Amino acid sequence: MISFLRRWFSPEAALSDASVRDAGAIARLHADSFRRGWSDDEVEALLADRAVLTHRATIGGKLAGFVMSRIAADEAEILSVAVTRWCRGSGLAARLLRLHLSRLAARGVAAIFLEVEENNQPAIRLYRRAGFEQVGKREGYYPGHAAPTAALILRRDID
Fold first, then answer.
1. What's the Cα-to-Cα distance from 21 to each of 9, 25, 41, 134, rounded to whole Å?
2. Cβ-based burial of 108 (10 A; exposed 0-12, middle 13-18, buried ≥19)
3. Which of 56, 118, 129, 134 is the most buried (most CB within 10 A)?
4. Alpha-carbon distance 2 to 12, whole Å?
5. Residue 57: which domain range?
């Protein structure tokens, strides 16, 4: 019910390229979203890297989400996708991912890879809906649970 209400009463997010100025906000969102967050310096170095492509979503001037990939030749790896807790379930991650995939394609990327924790069902649904398919699995990759969990390796080809 809350997701339904968010869709109808949330202001529209603005999607755009991220820059080094966004490093602090991206680092905070990443730390809030994952067990091992990135530092401001790590995010700043990624944003300054010409091989890294990052898009952000803002609502009312505040960061609401981001997606970041590293490009190598005609392949890319999605490094991270995160959306603030209050925007989860609103479709914002899907909108960000669509924009990001189209920009990767425009840069000549033919295949995109990512790793996702096997228990992260919302992320897996997002990626499957975006056309990603499982191509591998790394057992015991993610620590921090009663037992380490596997990373699913997903791939999507861009036509």
1. 29, 9, 12, 35
2. exposed
3. 56
4. 17
5. 2-157
Q: Are 59 and 13 in contact (CB under 8 A)?
A: yes
Mind listing the pLDDT tens digit for each residue in 49-84? 999 999 999 998 999 999 999 999 999 999 999 999
The CATH number that applies at residue 49 is 3.40.630.30
Burial 54-77 (b: 16+ CB within 10 A, else e): bbbbbbeeebbbbbbbebeeeebe
> 110 with 157: CB under 8 angstroms?
yes
155 — alpha (psi -120 to 50), left (phi > 0) or beta?
Answer: beta
Number of domains in the chain: 1
